[in-house]
Specification:
This protein has about 150 residues and is α/β, with parallel strands linked by helices. Helix content is about 35%, strand content about 10%.
């Protein structure tokens, strides 16, 4: 049954490492995967998912605390050929450096949601990402004037 599955939305579900491992083993034809708001998944399981999900075009990791520099670099390295839509809303560990690398590798991105990624600078959001990904719809916070 998993081989016929093309879209899977597990936002807010009780997902753990075993569930992620099962997805990588049995759902090899997934094009869209949404794992927003999951809490009990290790860095190892997320890395395994990224390495093995060769056909994913849409990945949603909204407010997943495990999304860090290493995870963004893995996405850039292993998903660059197919990834069209990436949603990392609220992933607070993500910084400019890895986003530049992601933009360099994933040139086919059509949509990138970085709302509430508090460590991204306005220079990256206003200048660098739009220049590097001219055909990408960038979803981001409105400019914050209260920043130091």
């Amino acid at each position: 049954a998993g081989l016929n599955l093309h879209e899977l939305d597990l936002d807010g579900c009780q997902v753990n490492d075993e569930v992620v491992k099962a997805i990588t083993l049995h759902c090899k034809n997934l094009h869209m995967l949404s794992l927003g708001y999951i809490e009990d998944v290790s860095h190892w399981a997320l890395a395994l998912l990224i390495r093995r999900s060769k056909k994913l075009t849409h990945l949603r990791l909204t407010r997943v605390s495990m999304v860090s520099k290493a995870i963004i670099l893995l996405i850039a390295s292993h998903m660059s050929n197919n990834l069209k839509d990436l949603d990392i809303t609220g992933c607070k560990e993500v910084k400019d450096e890895e986003m530049v690398y992601l933009a360099q590798c994933c040139t086919g991105l059509e949509r990138l949601n970085v709302r509430y990624c508090k460590n991204l600078t306005m220079e990256l959001l206003d200048k660098h990402l739009p220049e590097m990904l001219p055909n990408c719809q960038l979803e981001r916070d409105r400019p914050r004037f209260d920043r130091d």
